[in-house]
What we know:
Blueprint: H1 6-14, H2 19-24, H3 40-52, H4 58-63, H5 67-77
Amino acid sequence: MAITIADPKKAMLAIDLDEEMVSRLDPNMLLSEQGFDSIDYPAFAVAVEERYGLKISDAEALRLKTLTDFERCLNAKV
């Protein structure tokens, strides 16, 4: 099963992030520069872990700064 950019976006919507913001996200731009804040990021990481039944280590989480980063990480784990 290949993960696409649309998949992490679904996890964002599941934690009630603003749908308009999510739809405008540039997959290669830092999430922090697109409206993500210090509360959104951990909630999103947990939602991704739960959605895909995997663990993202703290070290990995520090490297996941874009949607593309999440896509690559998820594809490496599933």
